[in-house]
Amino acid sequence: MKGRNQRVADRTKNALADKAYLSKDNPLAEQNDGLRAVEKHQHALLMEPPSWETQYNCGVAAHHDGKLNQAVLHYAAAIRHNPALAEAHFNMAHALSELNRFAEAEAAYKTVLDLQPSNAAAAYNLGLLYQSAGRYAQAINAFQQSLKLQPDHARALNNIGVIWRAQDKLGRARVCFERALNIDPNLVEALYNLGITLHRSDEFASAQAFYRQALFLKPDYAPARWLHKLGLPMLYASEAEIHAQRNRFTENLNELIENTPLHTPEEKRHALEGISASTNFFLQYQGMDDLELQKKYGHFVAAVMAANYPRWSSPRPIPRPTAAGSRIRLGYVSSCMYAHTIGIFLMGWLEKSDRRDFEIFCYHLGDRTDPMTAQLRGLADHFFHFPHNVAAAAAQIESDNLHILVHTDIGMNPVTLLLAGLRLAPVQCKGWGHPVTTGLPTIDYYLSSDMMEPDQAERFYSEKLIRLPNLALNYTPPPLPGTPKTKGQFGIPHGRVMYLSTQSLFKYLPQHDDIYPRIAREVPDALFVFIAHGNAGVTGKLKRRLSQAFEKEGARAELIFVPRLTHADFLGLNLAADVLLDTLEWSGGKTTLEAIACDLPVVTCPGRFMRGRHAYAFLKRMGLKETMAVDKDEYVRIAVHLGRDALFRTQVRDRIRRTKSMLFNDASVVQALEAFYRRVCASGI
User: Fold this and answer.
1) Per-residue DSSP letters for 295-336?
2) How far, in Å, CA of 420 to CA of 277, rounded?
């Protein structure tokens, strides 16, 4: 599912080397009496000098007892006595990885493979280590090495599939999961992961079948249970299906909450595994008021996180100044600190930050990095990267003793939701990177745009709504290509009126499909251009649905879905287009700003919620009311007028060219934002 990076990596159940020395004191044979094993080997340490066998067995005993730092010390001592002891290197690598000491763990696993080149388990665990760090190419190489050594290693194939899926290569992922299941038809994780892959391809019924199969084999497998109950389609065939799926979601959410106790350690762990599997990402694209459902789920998430991490679930006081002139410690958390809409919008805030008053901490939770990640790192006083690691990020944030923590994209993927369900700073805010209320009791304020919010918008939020001035953005428009492509170079015939619509395909709701054929009936040379989904099946599903709408309206379907483009070509497509058609219910944000930067006329109709009013706010800010509709009928009339009247299009383009600067480089937004930060710190709220 787009926007959610599902990560289900299989770890060996017993990653410790199963060979131990001094069998009479073998802690592996005494796992149910770990304390007695530790005591025996500690007694053995009193011998002069302690042997490498004793050090090794003390390490295994401490390891089983969860004393990882102590285990590492014992393994290291054993290795000093016997550098060729591969089992000690292996176990030390495992303990180091659990301690998040990745570089040392990597070196230890490599040593194992130097000593034992045929050790498939070491290659596999090294792959897991790379995978957890987002070093995907190295992870695949390590898993492939384990497969060469052990061709029936189904779990290695499963994890390669997880990596391909994380990179949106769903076809490759599917092949890996199917190969894993050919080896082991009962591998629950592969069944589940194949279900996710089909789900992201919008093969919803097939995905549900694989979730059910996983649950048949392992009824307490929480990730499959959660997605089976709360998963939603990407695209809908009709408005009636939206309501049916929403009712199903509501009933299943109530059932999950009612039947998910949080008393025993095992119950707490299962609940955490469940909420780690999904978010309500697609719920928000149904175009309805999600407040009550978000609150219900948000309170449950916070309860699960408190049960698993009580240390990070209590209120925190505002830190007192440590010295005269101390700065406010301000943290930003995001899974999108790269060239993504959210990363770009965050950069606008950071570029104009008053560093005399604010010490900036950034926590990147995603695995993707690019040159913009380096730019964001340069704009922060402190930058940390914890790919999909909630516990490590929480520990770092706690140690940084922040005044304010701002989450930019809660709900885009599970890790953002889980971390936001903790109380890691006295003041916690949500930016409008994913513009819907979180429902979390741990989030105090929602930072939004005054021009985008409707009157009395507070009723749609569980947080206290903060209306920042104008667009709440300090956005710098991109440089336009010097020699953009023509329509013909995009495969679009010259002489046609090109209506462009560039949103993610799950934003297109079936009840609004009639817009396009109604325009086509009035503009005979109209051509409608969309951006294809990364999966051909998803694109085909929307194309068929739109074609049916054209047939129903008695119009000829002239639809083109162009493949994903480079950014320069995307801007070129906007420069070549005649009209941009905004989506109803969930408006275009950065894509619409880029269209306006290209002087492209935009037709929009503001929705009931902020997420459906982005383009409306842009046009309102420019004073361009001519292309703002009050309802769907007027939307069609405006689009037809622009398509049939070239002079009107030119006049609108000229207006945009003269006024678009009002949307860009708005430092007043950052000044207002930081004034809010100062107020909440001063008031101690």
Assistant:
1) HHHHHHHHHHHHHH-GGGSS--PPPPPSSTTPPEEEEEEES-
2) 15
Tell me whether residue 156 is in a domain: no
Q: Is residue 451 part of a domain?
A: yes
CA distances from 549 to 44, 510, 546, 557 (A): 80, 9, 5, 9
The amino acid occupying position 183 is I
Q: Specify the amino acid at residue 474.
A: N
What are the tens digits of pLDDT across the range 188-214?
999 999 999 999 999 999 999 999 999
Residues 494-537: tens digit of each pLDDT: 889 999 999 999 999 999 999 999 999 999 999 999 999 988 99
SS (H, E, C) 49-96: CCCHHHHHHHHHHHHHCCCHHHHHHHHHHHHHHCCCCHHHHHHHHHHH
Q: How many helices (H) and strands (E) does the chain have?
A: 27, 12
Same domain (yes/no): 450, 322: yes
- Residue 376 shares a structural domain with residue 447: yes
The pLDDT assigned to 323 comes to 65
Letter string b/e over residues 258-289, b meaning 16 or more CB atoms within 10 A of that residue's CB: eebeeeeeeebebbbbbbbbbbbbbbbbbbee
Domain contains 198? no
Domain boundary among 151, 185, 209: 151
Enclosing domain of residue 577 = 488-663
Q: In what order do the strands lie in the sheet with 358-364?
A: 382-385, 358-364, 328-334, 404-407, 427-430, 445-449, 464-468
pTM value?
A: 0.89
Find where tokens 């801007």 sit: 571
Distance CA 7, CA 120 (A): 22
DSSP bridge pairs for 446: 430, 465
Residue type, 297: Y
Residue 311 structure tokens? 């240390």
Number of domains in the chain: 4
Task: Say which CATH number the domain at 628 has.
Answer: 3.40.50.2000
Residue 138, domain member (yes or no): yes
Whether 283 and 333 share a structural domain = no
How does DSSP assign 181-242, residue by residue?
Answer: HHH-TT-HHHHHHHHHHHHHTT-HHHHHHHHHHHHHH-TT-HHHHHHHHH---SS-SSHHHH
List the alpha helices (DSSP H) in 554-666.
567-576, 590-597, 614-622, 632-644, 646-659
Record the tokens describing residue 300, joined without a space. Answer: 């449950």
Q: Are residues 141 and 6 in the same domain?
A: yes
Residue 507 sits in the same domain as residue 656: yes
